[in-house]
Amino acid sequence: MSRALSGASKEWHVGPVPGLGLRREKDGHLVLPLAVARCGKHLALAPLVLTVAEGEQLHAALCYALGGEPAPEDAPECRKPVRYPGGRQRY
Q1: Distance (Å, rounded) from C-alpha 25 to C-alpha 31?
Q2: How far apart are CA 55 and CA 45, in angstroms?
Q3: Which of 2, 8, 12, 37 is the most exposed place for a label (fewest CB within 10 A)?
């Protein structure tokens, strides 16, 4: 689960649900189940529902935020550099 929020709301946590990854619905929406907890007690599951365009915006924002960070060994393939002929590197 994600780290605690700062300030008065620090006892609230929202984070991904282990074993329940991102899925695509039949209507094309992307759904990421999130767990909501307060003071360590699980309260609810709340789906984050995104359109494809919203998913792309989130992906771009995360790529920008992670840009200077080296990819960890267990990172998904999209975070690892790919070498193309001629030495060009893309992510």
Answers
A1: 7
A2: 20
A3: 8
